[in-house]
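REVIEWER CHECKLIST
Item 1: Sequence provided? yes
Item 2: Single chain? yes
Item 3: Sequence as submitted:
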Amino acid sequence: MRLAAGTALLVQTVPVLLSGPAPGPALFQAFSTGLALLLLAGLGTPVVGALVALDALWNIASFGHPWRSIMVATLGAALALIGPGAWSVDALLFGWKRIEIRDRNGRAPPPV
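Item 4: Structure as written out by the authors:
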């Protein structure tokens, strides 16, 4: 999921940066490219995912490319909620998070 969102952001931003736009849109596209690279590496994924969702919603409002931006916003929000995954810098730095669901009496389920 990180790869899909990061690649979609790069496909959207790099051609705009290479065409040499005005400084305002270039700064926005450079910010989007930085978010895409962080997302591809899996560094700070919950925060970056939320910023990607906001960035994509801003892109819809200002540039009017709705469908790709809607997909990127959805993927960014999902990544902000579920985290980076096993193959990411976050997983190397902080380890995996394990959630144990207990029954009503507070006992853990038997091991599988």
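Item 5: Key structural point noted by reviewer: The helical segments are 2-18, 23-41, 45-63, 66-82, 89-94.
Item 6: Recommendation: ____
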